[in-house]
Amino acid sequence: MKTVLLTLLVMCAFAANSVLNRAAVGAGHIGSMDFAALRLVSGAAVLGVLASVSGGRRWLGAFRAVNVGALALYMLAFSLAYRALPAGAGALILFGTVQITMFGGAVSGGEAVPWQRWIGAALALLGLGWMFLPGTGGLPLPATIAMAAAGIGWGVYSLRGRAGGPPIDTTAASFLGAVPLALVAWALAPDAALNGTGVMLAILSGAATSGLGYALWYSVLPALGATRAALWQLTVPVIAVVGGVALLGEAVTARLVLSCALVVGGVAFGLAAPRRQT
After folding, report:
1. Where are the domains positioned within the chain?
2. Residues paired with 30 in a beta bridge
């Protein structure tokens, strides 16, 4: 039960990142690369302090090039995509891609996937597709490609988190390692738009819903496995839609409610499958 509650908390943090990024970048309060850089810097600062308090300088030895690259790809492409994508649609593309990436990684890594989990994943993806069916063809292609790239980055980053190790150390090192890449991207593509609201939302996203949220995610990943973790993340677009309705004024329709129910039902069915080993 503790793992379930912590995972639900993490999913809410992930959805909050979509809402915060869309509210800041989409509304013109801050540029996409400014948001990504501030998000990484603030997250690295908070995580570095926490990791130093808990383990001294131990976390400085937790750098992994793949982790850093995957996190940077996710952060930069994520912010870039939210220039044009709605919060819910962006989360759909992101975690649909994450689903494919993590299921592929699980199968190639020898993890046995029960048939119930495949059916649950298919039902959840069907619900997500139904949620945005009329608007999918009208989504801007560059933003869609950017969000798909972000999904690959996040999927790889999540797969790497199954290796264990102190979650706060690994996350702090990854954030710090990704900061120079974000600063280079910001220098090459500076955005003119920047105000106090955008800065505040970027810092909130970096320090709280990203930094602390990702550290918590790495702490629960070893108990979930790749396919269960991928299924859990399919709830994020549903939560992001609710956040978009409550905070960004998006409309509620009957199909939106039914598709969210299909996603939740599919995830519940898949998560009920017993864990097996090869």
Report:
1. 2-271
2. 194
274: number of Cβ within 10 Å: 7
Distance of alpha carbon 232 from alpha carbon 161, whole angstroms: 15
Give the pair of three-digit tokens for residue 115: 């048939």
> What one-character-per-residue DSSP string does 63-101 give?
--HHHHHHHHHHHHHHHHHTTTS-HHHHHHHHHHHHHHH
Residues whose CB falls within 8 Å of the CB of residue 200, separated by 6 or more in sequence, listed in order: none
Would you list the DSSP string of 122-167? HHHHHHHHHHTHHHHTTS-HHHHHHHHHHHHHHHHHHHHGGG-S-H
Cβ neighbours of residue 246 under 8 Å, at least 6 residues apart? none
CB contact set of 260 (below 8 Å; sequence gap of 6+): 127, 131, 238, 241, 242
Q: What is this structure's pTM?
A: 0.82
Cβ atoms 44, 193 nearer than 8 A: no
Q: Which two tokens stand for residue 192?
A: 């003119």
Smallest CA-to-CA distance from 250 within 15, 13, 19 is with 19
User: What stretch of H or E contains 253?
Assistant: none
Closest CA to 147 of 89, 86, 81, 72: 81
- pLDDT, tens digit, 9 for 90 and up, residues 97-145: 887 787 777 777 777 777 787 787 787 777 767 766 655 445 678 888 8
Q: What is the CA radius of gyration of the chain?
A: 18
Tally of CB atoms within 10 A around 134: 9
Q: Are 172 and 95 in contact (CB under 8 A)?
A: no
Which residues on neighbouring strands pair with residue 194, listed in sequence order?
30
How far apart CA 11 and CA 268 sit, in angstroms, is 14
